[in-house]
Design brief:
Blueprint (H helix, E strand, L loop, with lengths): L6 H13 L3 H30 L10 H8 L13 H9 L15 H17 L4 H14 L15 H14 L11 H14 L2 H6 L17 H4 L13 H11 L2 H13 L11 H14 L7 H12 L18 H13 L13 E2 L2 E2 L10 H11 L7 H19 L8 E2 L3 H10 L7 H11 L5 E3 L3 E2 L7 H31 L9 H12 L8 H21 L6 H13 L10 H25 L4 H16 L4 H6 L4 H11 L7 H4 L2 H25 L8 H23 L8 H19 L2 H13 L4
Antiparallel strand pairs: 1-2, 3-4, 4-5
Helix pairs in contact: 1-21, 1-32, 2-20, 3-4, 3-5, 3-11, 5-6, 5-7, 7-8, 11-12, 13-14, 13-15, 15-16, 16-17, 17-18, 19-20, 20-21, 21-22, 22-24, 22-27, 23-25, 25-27, 27-31, 29-30, 29-31, 30-31
Length: about 750
């Protein structure tokens, strides 16, 4: 069954034309955009300052960790605390209800672990009895309610540290429900975790338990553990764990680490420090997904170069020189580093594979949603032959789909309101099918300034989740959208004035052609390249319609090709008027691009453009059987890439175009896009393939393989005379074809509506 029209895209086209008549709406929108544009300079400067000022990571204070530091007795043997400023911080930061913790988010277990530690610290030094009593009242009320809360929001290491704190409270004879039946579940979880990592292993190899040593202080040999101390003096960057170690060993390196932290935080301490790699990676990720990375290219490069210094063949952790690596940070680092041209090996992910599963940390038995989500994103940047990434892609996709089906898209590391939508979007639109403007439009809706992370206590990352980013992203998106709407109006006017509407080319096809270019290269300074892409696509569609028409015979096609080859419109004098009009439009367009190319490249590019068009026209003019047509290699993508590249930012020399490396990447691009265009054509015509599911699967398999080769050609860390911008443009065009083949008309129509016609507020 053949579909006659793209109903969804056509609806958007009609809506666009009607909306342009509302002059009041246009003036109001332009006024708003002008206001946003004036604010953007200030926002950009603010973000630049933030990125340039990144050091060891900005992270909120943890009452729990501060309490453990406050518990340390003076190392000189006096009966005073070693860190009186930490005790004062506890006194100054108790909440109205008697608890300690994040003042803007109430989670029972988080408040309990913070409050219990603070009460014990204050009681130990026998100060602030009023606060102690209020804290005890809170604990008596809420400890029995712990089971009412979902396990996904349990603080990290809770099953290790909570039982130890309860034992301390019992020794101090605090009035708490020690024998409550529901507490046994937590003690059982502690015993299970301890069985997985025997004491001998704990003392010999770095593990996540180093982060929670305060819960094991009576079970470990502290002198033996000192050999597992991190370079900065901490135990896996945990102030609480390190404070406990200091109390047990009086180690000067522990003291140095805690002195630095309490000085920085005026007596307080975060739940983990530093977080330098984590902060840089997640900040770059957010800025890129919000569509504002082009303003901060040098800052992003600096951040990634910093991360790359600490990359290892086993991955990385959240802080430099971490003895324990995790799949979350490793995945984020791998994806960002590879996409920016750094040489990283996929073998790092072998470290996180056990049997046929992947885990966040070595030795874990359960996966987390965000860890698997970021591994899923990273796995899609695989090169051919990287089997570990293919295994990771299959495993994580299945894991996330199961969690979605079970309505369990929660995470133990972060409380993010948009996480469910993020994961669902990533599953629906894999990276090959993703497009920058669509990604940004979706992520602007999902990004939250108030995301809360879960460590041993709740914490926030003010440089990762920052209001200025989203304000800048919204303003930038609206400005780009306004430019795109103006360009689309001009494209439609050109289409009508050129008489292309009389050749059977529908307006919705014009909208879609422009849309595919705009979502791929959206930047304002890339307008010439974007419009060249869109107009080239429109004319190729018009020529295909003409060549395949009932009244277009072989001699008409040959005449059209001959006239173009001779670059002489007079050769069309015996052709139908429709053919003359089409030839005239193509002739003028190539001439116009050639003039623009002289400005952009400083040389005549007309020969290169005409040669590509001539080759494409010859291919389209051939009389082929269906089987031959299915197997022919189109050069449509090459026209788009080369024209956009000529009118873009890179200098394209004649020697480059004839270089084998350029020919190689263009061949891969043409092959991939030819396969994807056929898949898209079959879908548009209402059939899956020319000969059933088997052929359909073969095409998709070849397209996937081709995309892998294209990704390698673009991101492989190897010298090539082909400019990186040109290589990336090949991938951008390939992904555009993939998107068109992947999405149905309704999905494209929805994206046209949201990206081109709906401002963000």
């Amino acid at each position: 069954m053949k579909m006659s029209k793209s109903v969804e895209v056509q609806h958007c086209a009609v809506q666009f034309l009607s909306s342009t008549t509302d002059q009041i709406e246009i003036r109001e929108r332009n006024l708003q955009i002008s206001t946003e544009a004036m604010k953007m300079k200030s926002w950009i400067e603010t973000v630049k300052y933030i990125l340039q000022s990144m050091e060891d990571g900005e992270i909120t204070i943890s009452a729990y960790d501060t309490a453990w530091i406050a518990l340390v007795p003076a190392l000189n043997g006096s009966s005073e605390p070693q860190f009186p400023s930490s005790l004062q911080w506890l006194i100054n930061n108790q909440l109205q209800d008697g608890s300690w913790g994040d003042p803007l988010m109430f989670l029972i277990r988080d408040r309990i672990i913070n409050t219990l530690a603070c009460v014990l610290a204050l009681k130990t030094w026998n100060i602030y009895s009023l606060g102690v009593n209020k804290g005890l009242s809170f604990l008596q009320t809420y400890i029995p309610k712990m089971n009412d809360e979902h396990d996904a929001h349990t603080p990290v290491g809770f099953e290790i540290v909570f039982p130890a704190l309860m034992e301390d409270a019992k020794i101090m004879e605090l009035d708490l429900p020690y024998d409550a039946e529901f507490l046994q579940k937590i003690y059982d979880e502690r015993d299970l975790k301890m069985k997985r990592i025997p004491m001998k292993v704990l003392h010999e190899f770095p593990s996540t338990l180093l982060h929670s040593l305060e819960g094991l202080r009576d079970k470990v040999n502290w002198e033996e553990l000192l050999k597992l101390q991190s370079k900065n003096g901490s135990f896996l960057f945990s102030p609480a764990s390190t404070a406990c170690a200091l109390a047990q060993t009086s180690d000067t390196n522990c003291l140095r680490y805690l002195n630095e932290i309490t000085k920085k935080y005026d007596g307080g301490a975060p739940n983990v420090y530093p977080v330098d790699l984590f902060e840089r990676l997640w900040t770059v990720d957010r800025i890129e997904r919000l569509g504002i990375a082009r303003y901060f290219e040098s800052e992003i490069t600096d951040s990634l170069e910093y991360v790359y210094r600490y990359w290892t063949n086993q991955g990385i952790g959240w802080a430099r020189d971490s003895p324990v690596k995790d799949v979350d940070d490793t995945s984020m680092a791998f994806r960002l580093l590879r996409s920016h041209g750094f040489d990283v090996t996929a073998e790092a992910f072998n470290h996180f594979k056990q049997d046929d599963q992947f885990f966040c940390f070595f030795g874990q038995t359960k996966q987390t949603v965000t860890g698997m989500y970021n591994l899923y994103r990273a796995s899609q940047f695989l090169f051919p032959g990287e089997s570990i990434l293919e295994e990771a892609r299959v495993f994580t996709k299945n894991f996330l789909e199961e969690k979605r089906a079970e309505k369990q898209l929660r995470d133990k590391w972060i409380i993010a309101k948009g996480l469910k939508e993020e994961v669902e979007y990533a599953l629906k639109f894999p990276w090959y099918a993703s497009q920058p403007r669509i990604d940004t439009r979706m992520y602007i809706n999902q990004y939250r300034v108030d995301d809360v992370w879960i460590g041993k206590a709740l914490y926030r990352m003010p440089i990762v989740n920052n209001k200025t980013y989203i304000e800048l992203a919204k303003a930038d998106f609206n400005i780009c959208q306004s430019i795109h709407r103006t360009e689309l109006h001009g494209i439609i006017r050109w289409y009508r004035e050129s008489g292309l509407d009389e050749l059977g080319l529908r307006q919705d096809q014009i909208v879609k052609s422009y849309f595919l270019a705009a979502i791929a290269i959206y930047e304002p300074d890339m307008a010439s390249a974007r419009l060249a892409w869109a107009k080239s696509a429109v004319l190729m569609a018009a020529i295909r319609i003409f060549f395949s028409g009932e009244n277009c015979f072989a001699h008409h096609r040959r005449q059209f090709l001959d006239a173009f080859t001779r670059w002489d419109g007079r050769a069309m004098r015996d052709s139908p008027n429709s053919a003359k009009r089409l030839f005239s439009c193509l002739f003028r367009m190539v001439n116009l691009f050639s003039v623009d190319g002289v400005v952009a490249q400083g040389r005549d590019i007309s020969g290169d453009l005409r040669h590509r068009w001539e080759h494409w026209l010859a291919s389209e003019a051939e009389d082929l059987t269906d089987a031959q047509d299915h197997e022919k290699l189109g050069t449509e993508a090459e026209i788009v890439v080369l024209t956009a590249a000529f009118l873009g930012r890179e200098t394209i020399s004649p020697d480059l175009i004839s270089h084998p490396d350029f020919s190689s990447i263009m061949k891969v691009t043409n092959t991939v896009c030819s396969l994807l265009r056929r898949i898209a054509t079959y879908k548009e015509e209402g059939c899956d393939s020319p000969s059933g599911t088997e052929e359909d699967d073969r095409l998709k398999r070849r397209a996937e393989e081709g995309m892998g080769h294209l990704v390698r050609a673009v991101y492989r860390h190897q010298y090539s005379p082909v400019p990186s911008g040109v290589k990336r443009l090949c991938l951008v065009v390939g992904k555009s074809f993939y998107y068109a083949a992947h999405c149905n008309n309704e999905e494209v129509g929805n994206h046209v509506e949201t990206v081109l016609f709906q401002p963000v507020y």
